[in-house]
Amino acid sequence: MKRVVVLTTGGTIASIKNNSTGLFTSGAMAGEKLIDKEKIDPGISIEVDSVFQVPSNAMDFENLVLLKNKILEYFSDESVIGIVITHGTDTLEESSYFLDLVIDDPRPVIMTGAQRATFEEGTDSYTNIRDAITAASSPDCKGMGGLVLFNEYLFCAKYVKKMHSFNVQTFTCFGTGYLGYVDKGEVFVINKPVRHESYEISNAIPRVEIIKASLGGDGQLIDSAATLEIDGLVIEGVGRGHVTPMIAKAAARAVEKGIYVIITTACEEGRVHPVYDFAGGVVDLKSKGVITGHDYDSKKARIKLIVLLAAGIKSKEIIQQAFLF
Question: Which domains does the chain have, with CATH numbers?
Answer without folding.
Answer: 2-189 (3.40.50.1170), 208-323 (3.40.50.40)
